[in-house]
Structures are given as structure tokens and as C-alpha cells.
Amino acid sequence: LAVLRRSSAMWQAALRSVLLLAVARGQFQFEIPAEMLQGMMGGGMMGGGGGRKGAEWPKTENSEISAEYEWLVNTEWEGKTSKYLLLRDGFVESPLKECEPEGHCLWAANNGRVLINTPKLKVVKFTIEGLEQVDRKKLENKEETELQKVSLVMEKPSKSTGKKGKLDFKRVAMADEQDSMISADLYKILDVPEDADQSAVKSKFRRLSVQNHPDKGGDPKVFNDLREAYEVLGDSEKRRQYNLGGMQLVKNVDIAWKEVEGQKAQLDAQLNQVPKNHPQYNAFKAQIEQQKKQFDKARVESQIQQKLQSDELEVMVPISASELYNGVEQKIFVFQRSIICRGCKEDPTRPECQDCGRCPPEKVQVPKYGMTPFGRQVVGMREKEQESRERCHEVPVEVTVRVSKGAKQGASLKVLSNMGHQTPGKFPGKVNFKVQRGSKEDSYMIAESDLHTVLHVSLEQALFGFSISWRHLGEETVTIVKDRLERPDEVLRLKGKGLVQSGNKRGDLYVRLAVDLPEVAGQKELSLSAKNVEALQAEAKLEMEDEVRIEEGTAWRDWKERSSAITYKVSKGKTEL
User: Fold this and answer.
1) Cβ neighbours of residue 143 under 8 Å, at least 6 residues apart?
2) Do 324 and 499 touch, CB atoms closer than 8 A?
3) Structure pTM?
4) Exposure letters 118-146 (e unless 16+ CB within 10 A, then b)
């Protein structure tokens, strides 16, 4: 028994040393889940309240963070006794003890309210005050001067004080400032255009470095900036990295290569610990050399590119019913791509930076803590989103795609590499352009292979009949002839006038006849005549049908009139129906 205890103690000490060494080196390459540590060390040793339950959303509350409240993400709000950092995906960081385990406190924002959900306080609702006095564009860019105009005020007063609590803006969770990184535009430092070839960059650096050398009375800072700029732009690969992800990407790639060199050095150190006259030395050396093959330059470059690349971006391309029916060999789509504004991090007030907003958030590696037999320890790493200090602006990029006849919803039209939004410290990812069946300018709502539209007719046409024609899907004419309407919002079904489905069979076209009431402008009498119908035979007035969806083979249309219903007040007293 004593031997077993000593063995267990030695194992615990060894594991603790490995954990601490990995953390100290900052190269934790793997993650040991807390439950695995508990199994390795024996149950009941973990401690630390691991069984505490986090907050959960009741069914009566909406847990959505609506797009209009995106400006709240990565902002911190402070009250008299607590503060809350609102993270993406609805999590909250707070010094409150009940929020300490990751994911135990939640938040949401929708319908004009912010909700904070903690295990003890449950759901606390806040109204947003001050929005009427902010510049919306600046607010969405998370400019602190605008955020400071906004407060979160509790809907209900506190039971203890009888007053409504308030949270004021504290800060934006920003990426750490890299003091050692030059933030100015490297091309402007060397005074060369972005498309200058390498020889022109080298020639300009030589001339400027001679003019600004400290030995000749030049400014040392200017000289150092020139040298740092040339170290990047004078190297074609570093220049490519800078163009795609700024100085942060150049630094990230450099760190990744240093990690590789460190791993190779560790292998050499292992070999050096084996005496050369050891009978197994050659076998061990061969094993080390085999392991070094994984550090082949081309292979490592590919791995670094993959590790530092942004996720694939899906962009939906609106395709009209006519385009789906006929197909398009070359359709031009304008993609709004986010590009880093070089040099605007240093001074966002410069004229050329006025159209630049905040860049997409950066993801950084932070320690992940868990309870171990040795107390609260780092058990791995996790990604945390922080707002970027860099500035970006949108640039329209024309993309040519081919649309096949009857293209399905979500079908891929084209995939472009390195075309995603530029993010500081990341290589742009792929962009997958996909089919979005239907466009805002279309007259048809698409539901699978069927088309739905609204044809507007006058009151006289509804009473005395009409004949209306229009060009349908670019190659055929549809004519509707009616003696009179049988009922308001009458729907006609035109078989085989929809989109092509499998086997070249076409769906149907559904036309709802909407009657437009005439404007009387205070008149008490209205004259209607069949003679006016012929004069009204003008171009068909078509409008996209309200949202139509197919569920279990049945078509449904949203009843939008209900949301815009006029409240009718019934007079008090007995009402006979």
C-alpha cells in the first residue's frame, strides 16, 4: 500500500511538472479535458464545485441576438456592483462568482431589450436608452464616444432599493496593442506604389536609407522605419503576407516558423542526450531524421497557411426567376469585400481613413482553466474573439458566374481562393458563391418549381372585366382574360408556366388578382363605367407575392395584413351582433 501511495504521488508530481513546463513555454500543443484528469487521478480529487449548473433560457424568453444589436458584441457594461462583458454566441464574462465557469452566464438582445441570464439572478431585462442621440454608423463601428451615450436600464426596480438599476458602457474588448509592430503604411514609408516591382522597392530603399542615415544627420526613427518597411516589402513572401493580412499576419507567420525551429531543436536535443557509442544510437538517429521530414518547407508552409487562414465564406447570389428559367452564361455579381485600410490604425482621423470602419474581430488564443488535483490549472487553450484595432473598408469586386437552368437553392456557382474578407493576422479564406433563388427586383416569389405573383387591377376592371398580357420569363407571353372577378384576391393557376424541374417538367404559375381601390379625395360619389376599362388596358402591374413556403406538400403564405391591422374601437354599451 505504501508503494502504491508513493507511486501515485510521484505520478502526480510528474504530471504537474509537465503541465507547468508546457504552460511556461507557451507551447501547449494538446488539451487534457478535466474529466480525463479526474479519471487518471481517481474520482473525487477534482473539487472546485464542478457540478454547478449554469443558466438556462426559459421557453418564454427569446434567446436570439438580433442583427441590429451586433454593436453590443464584445462590449463591457458596468453597474454599481458588477460588470458584464457580452461575448459572441450569447456568453457573458463577469467577475461574479456564479459566472466564473465558462458559459454559465448568458445574454440576448431582441425586440428593443437586452437580457442577462445568470444562475442566481435568472433573467434580468434591460431597455436601451440613448439610441436616439447616437450616430448609427459610428455605433455599429463600436466607437466609444457613441457607446458612452447609451445605457442599459432595468425594466423593473430593485426589490431592495426600489430603484431601477443601470449599466453604463465601460470598454470594448480590443486586441492587445502590439507596440513593437509598425502601424504606418509601409508603402508610404518607402514612397512606392503598391504595384511597384521588387527592384523598384530595393532602389527606393537604398536612396532613402542613404538620405536619412543617422551618421549623415538623419532621424534615427525615420531610418529604423525605413529598414523595418524594407524587411517586409523587400521580401516577396512577406510582402504577400502584408498585402493580405497586414503586419499582424507577417508576425504570426514568423512566430509559426520559430515554433517549427524550436521543435526541430528539441529533436536534436533528444539525440544529443544519447551517447554516440550507444548500440542503439544509429537507430535512434534514424528515427529522429524520419521525424524531421515532417518539417519539409513546402509542407510546413501549407500547414501554416491552413492554420492562419480565415474560415470559408458563403456568399448568396440572388438569381431571378427569368435567369433560373433561361440560364445565364455570364452573370456579373458585385461582392462587397472588406479590405484593411493601411496606416489608419496609427491615425484614424486622416482624410483617407474617413470611410474606414472597424475590421472584423480577431481571434486570439487564451488559456482555458479547469480544476485539477493541483487546484485551478491551465488545461488547454481556447479561442477568444476581440475587436480589432485595425480599420477596414468595403471594396466592390466584380465576380462572373455561370447560372445553369433550374439551379437549386444553395448550389455552388464558383469558389475563389484568398478572396475572403481581409482580417488582421489571417490569410483570407475561400469564398463560395451560392445560388439564392429569387431577387428583390423580381416579380415572382419562388417556391420550389412554382412561381407566385400579384397582378393589380382597378375596381372597374374587377367589375366589368379585363384582358391583360405581359412578357413571362423572357420568352413567352401570358394573357389573362376575365369578364369580372368572382371574389377579392382571386387566385389563378396557370399550369406549366413555372420553373423547370426534374425531367424538363415545369411547375405552375399562381397569380393573385388584387383590386386597387380608387382614391376619392373627399368625394361622396364615385362614378364607375365599363367604358373606362379599355382605357385602362395598360402594362401589367405585377408585384412579388408575400412570402410563400412549402410545408409537407402544402403551400402557405404569411398573413402580413395581421401585423398591420388597424385597431378598431367598439363603442361602450350593449352591442348586437
Assistant:
1) none
2) yes
3) 0.69
4) bbeeebbbbeeeeeeebeeebbebbbeeb
